[in-house]
Amino acid sequence: MLPKMTKALLIAAIAATSMIAADKINGAGATFPAPCYYDWAYNYQKATKTRVNYQSIGSGGGIKQVTERIVDFGATDAPMSPKELDKAKLTQFPAVIGSIVVAHNLPGVADEKLKLKNSVVADIFAGKITMWNDAAIAADNAGIKLPAEKIIVAHRSDGSGTTYVFTDYLSEASKMWKGKFGTGKAIGWATGVGGKGNEGVTNLIKQTPYSIGYIENSYKEKNNLAAATLQTAEGKWVVANKATFQAAVKQAKWSKKDHFYSSLVMQDNAYPIVAATFILMPRDADKAEVREQVIKFFDHSFRNGDAAAEKLGYIALPVETTNLVRQYWTETK
Fold first, then answer.
1. Whether 114 and 226 share a structural domain
2. Cα–Cα distance between 245 and 326 in angstroms, integer?
3. How far apart are the C-alpha atoms of 142 and 225, rounded to whole Å?
4. Three-class SS of residue 281?
5. I want to staple 165 with a disulfide (CB 3.0 to 4.6 A). Which of 188, 246, 275, 312 is the partner?
6. Parent domain of 88
7. At what angle do helices 288-304 and 34-48 cross, to 10 degrees?
8. Do 173 and 83 belong to one domain?
9. Where residue 215 sits, what CATH number does that domain have?
10. What are the pLDDT digits (tens) for 263-315?
11. What does each C-alpha distance from 48 to 34, 42, 216 come to in angstroms?
12. What pTM was computed for the model?
């Protein structure tokens, strides 16, 4: 039998632990939106005293951890299908819009100066085009002195939603790519070196002359890297900027019924590699209280985080979409 004082202290300690747990939300997953989620978490803690701990471990890791109920929410750039969500007993909604750029470290070539056809990008990452002065690259870059140097491809080494979106784009751009490699969070690369997370690929490009890789636009902006000008679905040259991202977002076909499962790549008159990034939450009845805490965080961020997201190079969800997400929260348990 515990003495009265010891028992009281034990009860107080348990209560304190419960309060700490209630004031902390744990999430993990995609590196693509990580800079945005860090900013939103910082501002949410300032406003509410609730801490949001987000670990940038890749979409594959986020899906695994939320499926195993290790974290309160997972984050993925590769949306799960309705069938997959039902099996894992998860809900899914978009949080923010980002884009992937084809960044390069080509000495003397500035941002947006190098033009690469979408089919040429596919051939580079498939290992079919191996030299910077290849005729297929030179054909669209008459004003650039292309070196007789080997192209060093940088790609993800981990299970990645960024890879899923990028390979989805390549599958749309090239029948060869679709038939040989397809779309996936991890694929069998024909060439190149791997880096973990957007951070890892960014560092590989920064440190390796004559390299090329795919990274989320905010990482390119933050690290002052150069990126190629690509093509719209119709073949018009297009740069990565707010207007060309929004052009893709306006064509999104969101549906609550299929948990917002859709793709934004290769839309008409838009930058070709635009993507939403998604949040996954457990449907379990005993997770209802935690789920409400996660919803409060994202609702606050939808209401107050647009400027922060766009400053970092992302595109905030349109009001029509955030209203649809709020309806989804209410209707889907």
1. yes
2. 23
3. 22
4. strand
5. 275
6. 25-98+252-264+275-331
7. 100
8. no
9. 3.40.190.10
10. 899 999 999 999 999 999 999 999 999 999 999 999 999 999 999 999 998 99
11. 20, 10, 30
12. 0.84
Structure tokens at 222: 């933050």
Q: Decide: helix, strand or coil at residue 63.
A: helix
- Residue 179, amino acid: G
Per-residue CA distances from 208 to 107, 124, 125, 213 (Å):
10, 16, 16, 11
Rounded Cα–Cα distance for residues 217 and 42 (Å): 21
SS3 track for 90-120: EEEEEEEEEEEEEEEECCCCCCCCCECCHHH
User: E strands, the chain, where?
Assistant: 24-29, 51-56, 73-76, 90-105, 152-156, 193-195, 211-216, 226-227, 230-231, 237-238, 274-282
How far is residue 187's CA from residue 190's CA, in Å, rounded to a whole number?
9
| Same-domain check for residues 92 and 112 | no
Q: Which residues contact 95 (CB under 8 A, 6 or more apart)?
A: 33, 37, 75, 276, 277, 278, 279, 298, 301, 317
Query: Residues 104, 202: one domain?
Result: yes
Q: 229-266 pLDDT, tens per residue?
A: 999 999 999 999 989 999 999 898 899 999 999 889 99
Contact present, 76 and 48 (Cβ < 8 Å): no
β-strands 24-29, 51-56: how paired?
Answer: parallel
Percent composition of the chain: helix, strand, coil (DSSP 3-state, to 5): 45, 20, 35
4 within some domain:
no
